[in-house]
């Protein structure tokens, strides 16, 4: 991790049938398993909303039908002894193709094969990051 603040945009995408959140895993084979919603880094000169659209298209090949900015939160954390710092733009979002809700797992298109997205709940052994998202997940359920 770099010694700078990383701006990111994440989408709280819920499955309509049960309110499950679309997530991916990080450090799942460690003592600190974590999941986070779809999204990623905001590039220089790019708005958070544009980054959200780009990241979702890159990750799962889907487009965003609606995204409402819920909040911006600061996330300072340590992973494997390294300090990280993010400014997180949190969006409540829906995808254009709702048939994705019928799938249980699917690969991330711009990442190694072992990374997948899935609907949470499911495996609740990993904590949601950043931790401030718990408040928004409860509010949008």
Describe this structure in words.
The protein is mainly beta. Helices cover 15% and strands 44% of the residues. It is built from two helices and eight strands, in the order βββαβββββα. The protein has helices at 48-60, 133-140; strands spanning 6-13, 21-26, 34-41, 64-79, 82-95, 105-107, 116-120, 127-128. Strands 1, 2, 3, 4, 5, 6, 7 and 8 form an eight-stranded mixed sheet that branches. It is globular and about 40 Å long. The chain starts with 5 loop residues before the first strand and ends with a helix.
Characteristic key phrases:
141 residues, mainly beta, eight-stranded mixed sheet, 2 helices, 8 strands, 15% helix, globular
Per-chain topology:
Elements: E1 6-13, E2 21-26, E3 34-41, H1 48-60, E4 64-79, E5 82-95, E6 105-107, E7 116-120, E8 127-128, H2 133-140
Outline of the structure:
This protein is mainly beta. 15% of the residues lie in helices and 44% in strands.
Order of helices and strands: EEEHEEEEEH
Strand content: 35-45%
N/C terminus separation: 32 Å
Proportion in helices: 10-25%
* Structural class estimated from helices and strands: mainly beta
Poorly predicted runs of 5 or more residues: none
Mean pLDDT: 86
Q: In total, how many beta strands?
A: 8
| Largest sheet properties | 8 strands, mixed
**Rg (C-alpha, Å):** 14 Å
How many DSSP H or I helices?
A: 2
> How would you sum up the global shape?
globular
């Amino acid at each position: 991790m770099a010694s700078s603040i990383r701006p990111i945009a994440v989408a709280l995408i819920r499955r309509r049938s049960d309110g499950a959140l679309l997530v991916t895993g990080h450090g799942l084979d460690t003592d600190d398993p974590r999941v986070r919603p779809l999204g990623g880094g905001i590039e220089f000169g790019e708005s958070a909303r544009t980054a959200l659209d780009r990241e979702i298209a890159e990750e799962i090949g889907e487009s965003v039908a609606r995204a409402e900015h819920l909040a911006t939160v600061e996330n300072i954390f340590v992973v494997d002894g390294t300090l990280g710092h993010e400014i997180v733009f949190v969006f409540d979002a829906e995808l254009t193709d709702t048939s994705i809700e019928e799938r249980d797992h699917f690969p991330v298109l711009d990442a190694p094969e072992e990374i997948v997205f899935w609907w949470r709940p499911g495996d609740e052994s990993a904590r949601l990051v950043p931790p401030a998202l718990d408040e928004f997940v409860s509010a949008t359920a």
